[in-house]
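Think of the structure tokens as a kind of shorthand, similar to the way a musician reads notation: each symbol stands for something richer, in this case the local conformation of the backbone. In the example below we present two proteins back to back. Begin with the first one, reading the sequence and then the tokens, and try to describe in your own words what changes along the chain.
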Amino acid sequence: MERRNRILRYTSYGIEVLLFYILQGVPNLIPEIFGGRPLLLIPLAICIACFEEEIPAMAFGVACGVMMDIGTGTHIGFYTITMTIICFFLGYFSDNYFNTKLLSVLALAVIIIPVLISMEFLFFYILKGYEGVGYYYLHHTLATAGYTFVTTPVFYGINRCISRGFTDSYII
């Protein structure tokens, strides 16, 4: 029974990752606010990692990272590597040290999302020597980070339902 529930849970997560990857990539489906569009797979990966153990969390971090690299047009590897590491440690710490509550996930997301998006800006804009990066950072990168963070409670709710819906104690 446990194996069946785990397979259903992972399949649901996989469908969710694929669905939000598609939604993130559709032009003009999600409106821009202050020049930024949300990167939906970042809070999705954070929330999945908080509900799973290290290895499954890392696997979904890899999946979200690869899709982010493909979808954002960055060099393959940036989001893959960073999301893999972040999700592994989130899975480990949520499994061993803290309870996965909305407030704890929001506290993690308010740190992880701006740092991750700012690292992308550092590596792909500042280090390449583009002009006017300050304006771009204020009017696009920070708006993207804020908009991405605002979507976190939605993903928390969805993944909480998936995580709790496919455990032995909740299935009748």
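Once you have a description of the first chain, move to the second and do the same.
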Amino acid sequence: MRAVQISFGLVIVLIGLLLLLVTSGLVALTPLDVVGCAFILSGLCFWIPGIAWRRALPWLTALFLPGVLAFASGAGLMYTQRTESGFGAWSYLWTTLLIALGIGFLAMYWLGPRARWLRVVGMIVVGVGVLLFAIFVMAFAIEPTARIAGPVLLIALGLAFTVGALLPRK
């Protein structure tokens, strides 16, 4: 119960800090930024019960899945507001939802019941998401730095597979 109280207290403090920055004029928010912040905060709130009661009720870690999807959607909305490509960025940002889903499965494995299939599914979904993100960002991104991220991600993914194959198995 104490963890839930601390988590809600921290969420309220974050909302207060954001509102202070907005009212002081240091940060300018559009309506879509507010929606993005709401998605991010709701995604974080999905994690609170799963973390607080993971030992007593391990099935609550299933709340990580909608939490990471809401968080990734909010982050994507905020990103599209800040870049010149706007909503055209969703032509490659949709793959971050796959990556977030895989991270949700991995979090369920690490923090919940240690079911092996959660780790396997999480790794596969994250890997496919990163691969698709790298391909789609190279094809559709307008920003030069985003276009460079695709080949760098492909190189990192290839190195991860290679190093993983060279490591000794149990």
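Compare your description with these statements about the second chain. Helices lie at 2-23, 31-52, 64-82, 90-111, 116-140, 144-166.
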